[in-house]
Every structure is written in structure tokens, then in C-alpha cells.
Amino acid sequence: MRGWPLIKILPQKTNFHFVKYARAAGVLSVVLCVASIVSCFYPGLNMGIDFRGGASMEVAKPAGQVIELEEVRAAVGGLGLGDVQVQGIARRDNSAADGSTAILRFQVPEGRDQTQVVQQVEAAIDGAVGQVTYSGVSVVGSKVSGELFTSGLMALGLAVALMFAYIWFRFEPQFGFGAVIGLLHDVILTFGLIVLFKLEFSLNMVAAILTVIGYSMNDTVVVFDRLRENLRKYKTMPLREVIDLSLNETLSRTIITGVTAVMVLAALAVFGGEALFGFSIALMFGIIIGTYSSIYVGAPIILMWGVKRGAAIDEDAKPIKLGMASRP
Amino acid sequence: MVQLSRWKIVVLALSLVFGLLLAYPNALSPEMRAKLPGWLPKSALNLGLDLQGGSYLLLEVDVPAMRTKRVDNLVEDVRVTMREAQINLNSLQREPAGVVVSLANPAQQSAAFEALRLLAGGPNQQGVQERQATRLGNDRMRFAFTDAALDSMGVTAVDQSIEVVRRRIDSLGTREPSITRQGSDRIVVQAPGESDPAQLERVIGQTAQLTFQMVESDPQLTQLALQGSVPPDSQLFLDADGVTPLLIKRRVMVSGEQLTRAGVGSDQSGRPAIDFRFDGVGARRFAEATSAENIGKRFAIILDGKVISAPNIIGTIPSGQGQITGGFSIAEASELVNLLNGGALPAPLKVEERRVVTAELGADAVKAGAVSTAIGFGIIVVFMILAYGFLFGGVSVLGLLLNGLLIIAAMSLTQASLTLPGIAGLVLTFAVAVDANVLIYERMRDEARAGRSVIASMDAGFNKAMGTIIDANLTTLVAAGIMFAFGAGPVRGFAWTLTIGVFTSMFSAVLVSQVLLGWWLKTARPKVLPIADTPVKQSVKV
pLDDT band at residue B195, thresholds of 50, 70 and 90? Predict the structure, then answer.
């Protein structure tokens, strides 16, 4: 039974001096955040067809014959037009989809003539699946209408504000600030990664960002919870040390949960095919960043701010013994 | 906390039974589901457009009809303005984009032109002058929409229609439809799976233009109108009974645009009715319409050209609140409420094509998604057992299985659409669900390290971890609740899945481990905590 369950391998008690590196980490975080924000405007997010719209057309073979959607997808996908959506559809005179007709949506890259792109797409399809007829070529708008966008942003803003209020209420104001700044940090850096890897920004990416927010909050609250507990328990210990202690105490949990999540997402990225690749990469990165920010963004902000403890005295400035440091 | 309590076992057993009952239709084929007796739940998971396709509607926004309607209103505006300015008219001649006013008395021309210029107003928020008055001669002037306004009318109509359609489909549940503009005046709506296309069409097909207009109180005029001479400012309608003719003024007193909220209520005799509330402008106009001079007269409530009711005015209503009674069924009333709250369509939508579409993702992609999700789940199972052993790891895996069952049950019950990223997100929910177990187990290890007995450390582990688990999950729940309430479309769908996941994982992770570990504690009477550190001191300093 030695070494198994594996949890026994994890060191019982770690004593990393996390706070010591907080300054360097803070500088790094600020630099990366600024770089990420800049990159969102230049070169800018690679907006997918969900956001930018594009062109659509209908491709049909005579009734009774079958168009191989995968071949169409592969042929048009090879043209470098970004995400191509191919969907089987019923013929106009038929109620069920018989496989002979498909609709196709693709992006028209900026600065290129639509007719020209359409011709290119038609040529690629002809080459892949043989003689087909094309109809209904038209411009399609984005899936994200103006109101959808603004209401989504508003909902997100409100959600963050309420989380802030909740943590303020349950903990202390500075905990709320720490959590929300950590959250913004995670979201901004995830955007940075999306730009860096030229991942297509689609509705799925929005889902990934929202999940990162949820995870980041969850992780931060777990660390803060232990910090709050330790602040009550060790009333005379300097804040810096309490933070280090809390981070070390929650470290095994942070590692197990983080590793589980990252392994799952790695599986999704490797085996999930194109549809899940960008989504899982963004999420994986977001979760790693979320774990990092709980340690190096949330907690240091509390250190910078100071915490009122016991009789409202900043312990760092004036260590007064208020009671016996008690260990159960 | 680890002591086995009877109610916990009962709650666990009940959730298992309900979970199985609601989730098992997913294991049956659609034909078998149809044969289930009526009292059994038979709805399976509603997969999103990307996984299973659905119905496709190509709608044309009837922009010409909307233009005609807007010009109609413009003519009425001119008629009322001229009457209020006490200008005598020879004729009002309707044109495609406006109206030509002929004055009876050329001496009034400057007063008339001034009134029309005031009516035209300045440019709108986009800087477009919408309506314009021009002189055509001494006694003739034209009041019409500008070309710019007519052009933008079409674009705005399509944009507004997209928003209204989306709000209406959102009100049916979290379906995650895809709604896109196609070409200049068409909209493509795709709704996933077995969403009822007839219901979809009914919801989209209604313009839902609600107006309150006065009924002509002079019985003589109504008689004349029935003989064929309808006054230019009125129109003949049939009353709600479908038989009695009503002569109704064209002028709209208040319209659905001024509604802030509609809801299903009930009238004095308990039948379903629609409660409504107007905004400030609407309330003022409604108070005017029901003012003392109109008491005893009737006003008509008209929806899409049909009178739903024409009540008598018995007193002034200053609050802007009211009720529409009209012999609705509850279903009709709630559908109408949804339409009114979603706003009126600026123009009628014509269904041009209704077809079936297959999944947005190819079969390969769906398969890869399924395989990777299964692998992800497998990784969690293996990792938990490796990390915490067969007993503790196994208990959390059982918790996960119950969690999965409850999620499927809840998603089937609420018929929320499940997309591929949604499923991937759920696997991540599992990873976070494991977090609850990890928190509990790590606490137990802490307590065991502090030298407590098995029972004491397990008990303290549950107790102390509980606060953290609740705080962490409540924070997420708060965020999800807000995103559900204020978000739209996919954000709303995401929030719903998240909410379900947080509830079920908190519930199953904690309850399953409490009951199973409590049972183990009772039967095995262990001397050491299996996950506690081996007594060898191994402290690492960095």
C-alpha cells in the first residue's frame, strides 16, 4: 500500500514562500495583461462567421444522389476561409433531408470580392464531389445581433458586480476586489491567448470564457475561505505569513482539482476534433491562469490592501498580541 | 455529519429514483418513447443544432407592407395635426411615400406649412431627417418620408425583426436557435431538434401589434358607414363576437410599444386575462383616452387587425395599468403575454420556406466529441481512484455518476438544448464537482494529521469543508442566475446548464460521500483513515 493511494505521495506540509515572488508575478501579470489588451485591437481578434457573417449558398445534386458533406467541408475548408459550416437540408419540395442538398456558410475574407470567393468555393466543390448545382447565393449576417451582444455584456457585467458584492458581504471588501481583479486578469489573458494562437472567436469561445470566469471564481473563493479561517485562527501572525500558510494548506487541493480539469481538457483538445479544439485550448489555458491568479493576483492584492483583524489594527504595521496563537 | 441519518438515505434514494425515471427515456428509441404510458416522463435530451439539426424557416420581412402601414400612420398624423391647427382641408391625397395636402383656404398656407414642419421635427438619432414638408404651390403641400428614411426603414425592420423573433423564441425556453439575416430582407431561423415547428411558426408569424383606439360613439355615423360611406378618419371592424360591426377611429391612442410589462392575470370571475402596464408616455395617453369627456364611450383593443375586446370607459385610469379580458384560455393568454413582452414585429413575416436541416457538425466531429468526452470522464474516474484509492476515490466516482444522471434528468425535463461545447462544459463541471470531494478529503487529511481519530477527522472534514463548498458554489450560482435573467440566447443557455450543474454536483458530491462513507464507518469500524499520510515524516522545505 506504500505510495497508493497516490495522495500520500504529495508532501504533507509544504512551505513555499509564495508571497516572496508576488512582486515579480505582479509585474509579469500587468505586462501580460497590457499586451493582451493591445493584441485584442492590434492585430485584433479573429472574428468567426458567428460574429462577422459571410456568404451562404445552396449546393444540390439531383434527387436520389448523395452529397458527401465531409468532402464538401474538407474541400472548402482547404481554401483558408476560416470556419466553414456545411449542413444537410431537405430539398425545397421535400419534407425530409435526403442527403442530396446542403447549405454552406463561409466567410468572405476582408478586402476580397464575394463573387470571386464564391467562384473559388464552387470550383473547390466541383473538384471534390463532381457536378452539382448552386443556388441562393446570398450575404448572411452574424448570429450575434446587436441586442444579443449588448444584453450579453450587460449580463456579464452584472454577474461580476454581484459576485463582487457577494464576496464583499461574505468576506471583506478587499477580498471582493482581489477576486474580481483576479477574474478580469484571467479573462484578459485568455483573450490574449486567443489572439496569440489565432483561434477563431466564435460563440463557443464565449462559452469558454464564461466557464473560465466560473472556474476562476470557484478557485479564488476556496483560497480566500482558508485565508479567512487562518486570519481568525492566527491572530498575531503577520499577514504575509498567513497568506503563505493558507496557500500552502490549500495547495494539494489546488493541484488535484487543477490537474483533473487540465487533463480532461487536454483529452478534449486531443481527441475532440476541430469542433472542440479551440474551445478546449482556451479553457485549459484559462484554468491554468485561474489557478495562478488565485495565488498571485487575488492574495497579493489583499496583502497590499491589508486586512482589519481582531481589534481593527493592521497586523503588519503593529503586531500586537491579542491572544494565544492556538493550534487545535 | 458522518453519522448515517435516515433522511439523508431517503433523499439519496429519492433522487436516484427520480433521476432514473427522468433520464431513462434517453435510452429508448423515439418509437419506444411514444409508446410509453402517459404518466411516465418521455422527453429525452434536446440536442442542439450543432449535434442533431432541426427545422429551418426562411422568412421574408414584408417591408412594403410596413412602409404602407407607416404611410397610413403618417396620413393620420397629418389629418389630426391639421384639425388641431384648425386648418380647413380640401383633400388629403395619399401618395406612395406620403400625402399631398390641398387647403380649402390658401390664406392658411403659412400656418399649415408651419404645422407640418413642426410635425416633421428634426433629424433622428442617426442624423437622418425622416419626414419632410415641401410646398407644391399656393394651396398644396406634400408631407412625406424622405428617401433616406424609406431606405433605412427596410434595414431597421429586418434588424428589429431579428431581435423580436429571438426574444420570442427565448421565451419558449432555452432552445438556442440560430437567427441570421440573409440577403437584404430575409431571416433564417433554425431551431434544434424536435422543437415544434408549428409552434415556432405561430410564435413568429404573429405581428403582435396591439393598439387602443376609440370606438365611434355616434350610432348614426355607424349606420352610414354600414351603408358604404365610411368617414376618412375611421374604419369598420367586427367586434370580438365576430358579428357586431364597430366603427373605430383610425387614430391610435396608445399602442403596444408603450407597454412596459404584460402578464397573465384573472378577471373578476376568475377567467384568464392579460394584465398590462404602460410606460410614462403610455400612461398619460391612456389617462387622456379614459378622461371624463370619454366616460361612457368605448375603446377598442385591437391586435393585428382584430378587435379582442371593446370595453366601456367607466372612469379615468391614471395609473397606466389595466386588464384585457377576452375569453382567453390560459395557454392563449400566456402565449399572447410572451408576444406582447417580446415586442411587436415592425413588419409582417412571411414564411417562404420551411425545411429540415441536419446537424451543423459533421458525423465525424460529433463522434470525436463523444469519444473525447468519454475519455475525459474516464480520466477523472481513473485519477480519483489513483489519488484517493478504491474506497474514497470510488465514493466520489459514484457521486459523479449520480451527478451525471441528475444532469441528464434535469436537462431532459427542462428541454434545454445541449450543444457540443455544452457537453464539454459538463465534463468540466464534473472536474469541478470532484473539487467538492477533494475539499472534503483534504480537510479530513488535515484533521487526521492533527492527530484526531478517524471518526472525528471525517466529521470535521465534512463540517469544515461545507462552508467552503457552499461559498464557492453560491458565488457561481449568483453569477449564473444573473446571466440567466439578463442574458439572451446562448449566454442564457450556458447559464442554465451551469445552474443545473452546480446544483446537482453540490448535492451529489456531498450527499453520496456522506451516506456511503457513513455506512463504511459504521460497518468497517476503521482504525486509520485510508487517505491519511503514512506516519513517515516527510516535510519539504523550499
Answer: low
Instruction: Report pLDDT digits (tens) over A36-76.
Output: 999 999 888 888 888 888 899 999 988 888 888 888 888 88
Q: In terms of CA atoms, which chain A residue is nearest residue B472?
A: A218
DSSP conformation class of A197: T
Cis peptide before A43 (omega within 30 of 0): yes
The residue extents of the domains of chain B are 6-47+363-524, 64-146, 209-341
What are the structural domain ranges in chain A? Answer: 13-46+145-314, 54-140
Q: For A152, which residue in chain B has the nearest alpha carbon? A: B487
CATH topology of domain B209-341: Gyrase A; domain 2 (3.30.1360)
Contacts of A59 in chain B (CB under 8 A): none
> What SS3 state is found at A38?
helix
The rounded distance, in Å, linking the Cα atoms of A260 and B337 is: 46
pTM here?
Answer: 0.81
CATH architecture entry for A54-140: 2-Layer Sandwich (3.30)
A12: which chain B residues are within 8 Å (Cβ-Cβ)? 449, 533, 537-539
Q: Is the pLDDT of residue B328 over 80?
A: yes
How many CB atoms neighbour CB B306 within 10 A? 11
Q: What is the pLDDT of residues B62-76, one digit of tens each?
A: 988 888 888 888 888
* Mean residue pLDDT across chain A: 85
Query: ipTM strictly over 0.95?
Result: no
Model confidence over A123-155: pLDDT tens digits?
999 888 888 899 888 888 888 887 888 888 888
Tell which of A2, A18, A175, A210 to mutate to test the B interface (max B CBs under 10 Å): A210
Is the CB of residue B246 less than 8 Å from the CB of residue B310?
yes
Q: What is the mean pLDDT of residues B509-518?
A: 90
Helix and strand numbers, DSSP H then E, in chain B: 14, 18
Fold of B6-47+363-524: Multidrug efflux transporter AcrB transmembrane fold (1.20.1640)
Q: Tell me the HSE value of B217 on the side-chain side, using a 13 A CA sphere.
A: 11
Q: Which residues contact A2 (CB under 8 A, 6 or more apart)?
A: A8, B534
d(CA A98, CA A105): 20
**Grid coordinates belonging to A55:** 456568404
Which whole-number Å values give the CA distances from A265 to A64, A194, A255, A279, B437, in the listed order? 41, 16, 15, 9, 20
